[in-house]
């Protein structure tokens, strides 16, 4: 896939403000909007960001907005900082009204047609409800190990947790499950798998877990020190 070509194709409904070899700057053709920068390089930061949206974000149906809601304030702050690095956009974070017996969560709404189309057209993230149909984008599956490891960090920080004396996650998407098992294998991590029917929703769920000492295989491939430290801290690895 020619990433530059695919990014430019995804932005055809927008006004191009500036373009060079490394990035394009676009904004909406009509109405008030802010300029958004999109780099033509798939790096660890972008891979991580894509994974967090697949994990806990969604593309709204009614508006061209991306929303992500997390209970981990440090993680959502890091995603906010990543958006500044990637897109030169600073999106606000708001606490969500706390529900009874529920953890306090924080939401960031990314109001950008440029990013919305990038996620949908280039990185294949579905619009609206996606929990049982989402998968790892083809461009990530074809990338090198550093990009894949950054993706695994993003998905595990949003969707993962402690599981069966190790680290793992569960998903309603069989395709995402199979894609992640393959990526872990390529990184050198054997995962243990299971699946079950969630009676409340009468839906099949898919899970996996791996031993904590295997995390170093992910950290070895990911070159971004900040990202590695965030991952280690989240899973209590110092």
Q: How does this model look, in words?
A:
This protein has a 4-stranded antiparallel β-sheet. A 4-stranded antiparallel β-sheet has the order 8-9-11-10. The protein contains 9 helices and 11 strands. Helix 1 (3-10) crosses helix 4 (113-122) and helix 6 packs across helix 7 (174-187). The protein is globular and about 50 Å long. It is an alpha+beta fold.
Q: So how many helices?
A: 9
List the helices and strands in order.
HEEEHEEHEEHHHEEHEEHH
Weakly predicted, low-confidence segments: none
Counting helices, strands and paired strands, the structural category is: alpha+beta
Tell me about the biggest sheet?
A: 4 strands, antiparallel
Whole-Å distance between the termini? 38 Å
Strand content: 25-35%
Largest sheet strand order: 4-5-7-6
List how many beta strands DSSP finds. Answer: 11
The global form is globular
Average pLDDT value?
94
Helix content: 40-55%
* Spatial extent as radius of gyration: 18 Å
Short description:
36% of the residues are buried. 40% of the residues lie in helices and 25% in strands.
Question: Which helices and strands occur, and which strands form pairs?
Answer:
Layout: H1 3-10, E1 14-19, E2 23-28, E3 36-39, H2 44-56, E4 57-59, E5 65-70, H3 73-87, E6 93-96, E7 105-111, H4 113-122, H5 138-141, H6 145-159, E8 161-163, E9 166-171, H7 174-187, E10 192-198, E11 203-210, H8 215-221, H9 225-234
Antiparallel strand pairs: 1-2, 2-3, 4-5, 5-7, 6-7, 8-9, 9-11, 10-11
